Hints:
Elements: H1 2-25, E1 30-31, E2 36-37, E3 43-44, H2 55-67, H3 69-72, H4 85-91, H5 94-103, E4 105-108, E5 113-116, H6 123-126, H7 129-140, H8 157-168
Amino acid sequence: xxxxxxxxxxxxxxxxxxxxxxxxxxxxxxxxxxxxxxxxxxxxxxxxxxxxxxxxxxxxxxxxxxxxxxxxxxxxxxxxxxxxxxxxxxxxxxxxxxxxxxxxxxxxxxxxxxxxxxxxxxxxxxxxxxxxxxxxxxxxxxxxxxxxxxxxxxxxxxxxxxxxxxxxx
Length: 169
């Protein structure tokens, strides 16, 4: 019994360290005028002390619910049909996440039946993929609760220009 308690204590300590490490990976370090990036130059969320989310995270909330929640459930929680993307955004490497969305994924066999279509030619997904990823990363890190963010930052002018260029291109 004593060794089981010790193992449980060790597992709890390890889980706490992993959560702290994962939290550090999502910290916003730089802003290019369009979105925030972490220390590895991966898109991430930035939430002010008063709960205001950056524009990209808010945009990701909107785009996720327009394009993704039909299969993956509201707020990235998953469904009986498709996995929870809020978990995928913190578990998968950013580039793997992008590749799956762009190219699709097929995992069909005796123990799995998952088919995700490719969205690489859909500008309503691809022009906002970093935003969707950022929102899901915030959800998977429990930085943003379920539902529409209560407060959002203003849309940066540089963001609007990049959005227009992507949708026209």
